Amino acid sequence: MSGKVITVTSGKGGVGKTTVTANLATALAMRGRKVVALDADIGLRNLDIVLGLENRIVYDLVDVVEGRCRLRQAMIKDKRHQELYLIPAAQTRDKSAVSPSDMVLVCNELRQEMDYIIIDSPAGIERGFRNAIAATDHVLIVTNPEVSAVRDADRIIGLIEAEEKGPACLIVNRVKPAMVSRGEMLSIEDIIDILAIQLVGVIPEDEHILIGSNQGTPVAMNGSNGASASQAFRNIAGRLEGEDVPFMELKAKISFLDRLSSLFN
Amino acid sequence: MIQEAQQLRIKGIRDGLLITTSSEGSFAELCAQLRAELQQKGAFFQGSRVALQVEARPLNKAQILQLQRLFIEYNLELWAILADNAETRTIARDLDLAIRLAGSQTDLDGNVLAHLPESSGNGHAPAHQQSDAQVLMLRETLRSGRSILHDGHVVIMGDVNAGAEIIAGGDVLVWGRLRGLVHAGAMGDDTAVICALDLNPTQLRIADQIAIAPHEAGRTPYPEQASIKNGQIIAERWKSGN
Ligand SMILES: Nc1ncnc2c1ncn2[C@@H]1O[C@H](COP(=O)(O)OP(=O)(O)O)[C@@H](O)[C@H]1O
Ligand SMILES: [Mg+2]
């Protein structure tokens, strides 16, 4: 078997990389795939919290890299799913504890057993970012409908292209349909126009995400009980598996002119 | 002097500047040469990222740090050391420096360091950009964070996004949307021009003039040319036969 390595990254911090990683990993596991979520945010780990696995950590990625444990020992199984694992980041070390070539070795080993290796990246464009994309087959860029987040996404896409890890795909997170229709927020079309990459997901602003993160239960696990973000994540999982899932309807259209003028005011 | 000039080659590449040094001479001589060169052209290079090719010359940690400080003095950021020596590469990597250029034929550890690309983009740039102004043509979109530095004219077939910049000794022609920063005539040529299919830059500079373009909401884009007229940068709609 040869699993696919998917890196979730953004440039700007706080746009939802960890949320997307946890939910995509969950959604893919719910489809019966063998999935490992790997936290490459050394020193600032929190994927374990969002997945509700914090209290089960014994070994972490740095332990694997430095030979203190076998890879299997650092893989925490999420008991709510058939085959979902987490490899946590070390909290007490910094990014230099892991090198890009370490990441290639770890991912190559994981590929043998898993269908998907989903990597959560740190913010920024330094060593941690290079680690996160070193072994990747496919990069997902997360951005928010916000000029500064889109600017940073553009920068990251350029770096990914330069590293020949492209073409990256785009997830727009925290979209507030009401604000978009009032022209107070960049629309999906505006963002695609700037970034010129393939869109794979649009996730609405949804308070269930925060509630789920605090409880360690990613929203993707919620059945059909109304959480719209839950469906959005499951749709992305479907698209990653090659299904042609239509995008959810996101409210009223407004004219191009209105949007532009609100943008530049 | 002529001897020294040959030992140091500086050129614009897709990631900023590539400075190629010779492995002959002492480390102190190398620093002196760099200093002399930066002193002379520092203003033009300001703010660029530098990749330093040191070939077979071994460097220790203290020497790399010294080079880093030297570049900082001239407002340049050393981001990559390209070395034949494996130990030098390890030291550079531990200092969080890149040890290869994107697109070069090396693995992640920088082994099998192939010949450096002679120029950025599609290989149209001349090897000696320092001599006479020539055209650097890139057929790609420049995304945020990219910086193109060239002492001749620059032609971009693609967009120049906000957050990207072009600094050229000559004219700049963007066959696409210009939303970033462009400095034409950066070495003082106030006859330089900037053209774009859609001129919507963050800022334009020609020679020592700076202009901020008004954002016109909802206009249909049309080709424009910016130049200095009566001591000011103005943009005019492109008319054939201009
Ligand atoms: N679609 C969303 N709706 C509401 N809150 C969100 C959404 N996406 C992310 N958040 C919240 O935003 C914060 C930052 O998200 P996180 O995934 O940690 O970002 P990153 O990993 O990029 O730093 C968290 O508190 C998270 O719960
Ligand atoms: Mg995070």
Structure notes:
The complex is a heterodimer of chains A (265) and B (242). Chain A is α/β, with parallel strands linked by helices and 265 residues long. Chain A contains twelve helices and eight strands. Chain A has a single domain (4-264), classed as Rossmann fold. In chain A, 41% of the residues lie in helices and 16% in strands. Chain A has an eight-stranded mixed sheet with strand order 3-4-2-5-1-6-7-8, with helices on both faces. Chain B folds into two domains: 3-94, Transcription Regulator spoIIAA (2-Layer Sandwich), CATH 3.30.750.50; 135-237, 3 Solenoid (Pectate Lyase C-like), CATH 2.160.20.70. Residues 1-5 and 103-131 of chain B have low confidence and may be disordered. In chain B, helix 3 links the parallel strand 3 and strand 4. In chain B, 19% of the residues lie in helices and 33% in strands. Chain B contains four helices and 15 strands. Chain B has 242 residues and is of the alpha/beta class. In chain B, helix 2 (27-45) packs parallel to helix 3 (61-73). Classes of the chains: A alpha/beta (265), B alpha/beta (242). Magnesium ion binds at residues 17-18, 41, 46, 120 of chain A. The site of magnesium ion has 5 residues of chain A, from helix 1.
